[in-house]
Amino acid sequence: MKLIRKFIRFMNPSIETDIQADIDRRSLSSIHVISLVCLLFESVMMVVFLSAHIGKFDHNTWASLFGASYCIVLCGFSAFLSRRMLRMNDFPHNRFFLFKIFFFVAFTAWAIFVDYRQYCRGDQILTFHAVNLVMICFVIFRPWIGSLLISASFIGLFVPMYLYNRAEDVEVLNLILLALASMASNAIRCHVQIHVSTNKMRLVEANKALENASRRDGLTGLQNRLALDDDIVRMKGRETTAFMIDVNYFKELNDRYGHVAGDIILKDVSEALKHLFPGGHYYRYGGDEFLVLTHKSPEQNYGADTYDFTQEKYGAKVSLSIGNAHGHPENTEDLFALISEADKSLYITKARTHSAEFGGHDRRKSVSQ
Fold first, then answer.
1. Cα 280–284–289 angle (5° rounding)?
2. Contact in structure between 127 and 147 (CB atoms under 8 Å)
3. pLDDT per position as a tens digit, 28-61
4. Global pTM?
5. Helices 172-214 and 127-138, interaxial angle, to 10°?
6. Which fold has domain 225-358?
């Protein structure tokens, strides 16, 4: 029973959606290339054939023209449809599966037609085996589906030869062994591709994780300056408000409550910004400074230039100073200029909140309006 279950899993492996999509795209790309190559080859061969048979059209000539025309039309259709599907960012697996079945059956039927005529003339059977090899190497089916298709194709080749002369010139055992070898090759090819695609997806996910980690501040989880440099390119040309936020007397908070408390305060500030400026882009600009970019006007966001809260665990009184600038930057330079204006506005706020009038002590140079 254990061997049977293993065989069933081998013939019908579980494939994740993203892995299946990658396999489908690889098969589709192969079908596109195969169709173009066959289209070019058959077109050239038809021209050569017609040149050699001008005025000599008989039954065999018309049959050959029919076979070549069928292949050219089929290749053209497959190349066109596969190209359209490749341009789609996301195409349904079921739709591609039907197209892949059509491609296999249509080309195999053409190969059987060509080789049956060759067999009747006593020539070697080559086209069918060439098509079978191409399908195994480039078009990926689940093992059980591939086995059914390959079995049907070999039966489809054998039956007309048997009806013609009981397949007297065919080694049946060799044909069976070749069919089994084709099924095994298709199954192995499928499992190899699953392994390759799985490793590829894992590598992509790992690269995305590394990229996300490089774009995020490890303490607060907000985006960092590297992310800002990338994001700011996509923000130009839109109404934008920049907010610069600074924690007042953060060094004193660190000295009084400790660096662990300071880290917790910075995390709390990052969460507070998401409530004050919903829908914005949040960045830890450096140290205890934060940047928020929104596509709303200042009036639609938090309107005050200060914000106070109490850190629950340590009971620390935390005060934020806020500066903002609003505009419609047309390029990257305008956006950085807008951030600079918000920074100047922040200095003005800090000069006021740190003044003796507000019970503070000014640790930064005052900036006059």
1. 105
2. no
3. 999 999 999 999 999 999 999 888 877 777 788 8
4. 0.67
5. 30
6. Alpha-Beta Plaits (3.30.70)
